[in-house]
Here is the input.
Amino acid sequence: MQAYEFQTVVKNGTITLPFAYPPLHSQKVRIIVLVEENPTQNIQAILGLFAQAAQRNIFSGISDAVQWQKQLRDEWE
Here is the structure.
């Protein structure tokens, strides 16, 4: 099996092969699509998770944050 790698833009659901590749008419091919992540979407997802955590008050029982962190670190050692 031969592998070709290139970048392109999907237009109306169609991927066009560059002219530099041999014609693949009526040949069976395997297509793997890798989409670059959008950092803005990741940031929005993380901010949403922080908002959910704030609504649940999961840290409300911690009176001394420094002592709480020290106790957690002691568990790792």
Summary: Residues 1-36 form one domain.
